[in-house]
Amino acid sequence: MSTSTIRLGGVPEHFNLPIHLAKEKGEFEKRGIDITWQTYPGGTGQMTKALRAGEVDACILLTEGIIKDIIKGNPSKIVSIYVKTPLIWGVHTGVDNPLNNYADIFDKRYAISRFGSGSNLMAVVDANSKGHQIAEEQFRVIKNLDGALDSLSKNDSDVFYWEKFTTKPYVDKGILKRLGEYLTPWPCFVIAVREELLEKNPDDIIRMLRVIHDNTDAFMQNPDAITMVSQRYEQKMKDVERWFHSTEWAIHGWVSNKMIQSVVYNLKVAGIIGEGEEVPELVWKR
């Protein structure tokens, strides 16, 4: 069997461990796929740019972020849910910041990895759901988690949304202060692929998805999964236990049309996409 190369991107976080384990065990190669992993510490906004530029073939990224970017012209399609459960966003500030109340954040300065990123979009959606609006001048672009830690420590920004368990070690060390949590009202991660690859090599994508789904299923049943995450990502066992038992990965490629409608609705309500803006086909029809 000839081997096809797919450049797959994702964040350097524990959600993607099933894919790294599959690579290490040679599972993709058995299906004739060579996955070259590309890490994007800047998150969804960085990955949507890479997809547009053709620097990567497929990415695992935040549902609301890729839906927004496909509507804005990204030549990609969603091919599968990756994580079915919501993302738990921690709402943070610097440990020396006088801000202590989640209800007081909405007129403050927000650290975001980039405009259009998850840290940007969820801040807007969260504020809107509570009857507030965030002005563009409230945002400070900090590129990634390291940039946020620096900005918050210097009090150059006040509020930062990031995945709760990724930031938990910084909360434990007294570097960040968590003000609250916000759960996305939809599955948190999807897999998106450039349309060019879907048209040229659809069978390669189907084989890649089969490997991913088989290995997310195996990971959820692996009795050593919690220990592996704790060791590889240097997180406390108790924190990883809570995360693992609140997270469910997809084991098939079905994408709910109702879920897509809900995300589009929330993006419109938040003003992230225009009320009359045309919504193209977002999901790959096999």
Query: Average pLDDT value?
Result: 95
- What's the CATH class label of the largest domain? Alpha Beta
Poorly predicted runs of 5 or more residues = none
Structural class: alpha/beta
State the assembly state of the protein chains.
Answer: single chain
Largest sheet data: 5 strands, mixed
Strand percentage lies at 15-25%
CATH homology group of the largest domain: Periplasmic binding protein-like II
CATH topology of the largest domain: D-Maltodextrin-Binding Protein, domain 2
Description:
With 286 residues, the protein is an alpha/beta fold. It contains 12 helices and 10 strands. The protein is globular, with a radius of gyration of 19 Å. The mean pLDDT is 95.
Characteristics of this structure?
single chain, 286 residues, alpha/beta, D-Maltodextrin-Binding Protein, domain 2, 2 domains, five-stranded mixed beta sheet, 12 helices
